[in-house]
Specification:
Length: 133
């Protein structure tokens, strides 16, 4: 290959490398895809809530169920939410007039995040931690 042919091929090669890099970045990782297909976060999670602001009680433990990308109640109260392939969680919980929203991350057999809501008429917020049963 001559020097001029090599130089004219460089822009094409750069474009191909850039396209390959963008394609690889846009595709979910093999491990992430396997987690979603295999229900990597599926099971019952015991979630413990701690209050950091407000006068709400701390230490409540509530079981949640994860099935695929859905989060539901495993007993007591109404729970709805989602978990994405990287473990990001968004949940809404209501029991009677009390309601809260929370978000965080699951990884392996544990998770953590924050929450805020109105519990028995008091505005409160705090953290949560979870372990898979």
């Amino acid at each position: 290959m001559t020097r001029s042919a090599t130089i004219s091929a460089l822009p094409r090669l750069r474009w191909m490398l850039a396209a390959a890099a963008m394609t690889a970045a846009a595709l979910p990782g093999t491990a992430d895809a396997k987690m979603v297909r295999s229900g990597g976060y599926d099971g019952t999670w015991n979630v413990v809530f701690a209050t950091t602001r407000g006068t709400c009680s701390s230490g409540y433990s509530v079981p949640f169920t994860v099935n695929g990308s859905r989060v539901t109640s495993a007993g007591g109260g109404r729970v709805s939410g989602t978990v994405n392939r990287s473990g990001g969680v968004a949940v809404q919980v209501s029991v009677g007039a009390s309601h809260a929203t929370g978000g965080g991350r699951l990884a392996g057999a544990s998770g953590a995040g924050s929450w805020r809501g109105v519990i028995q008429g008091d505005n409160c917020s705090g953290t949560w931690s979870a372990t898979r049963s």
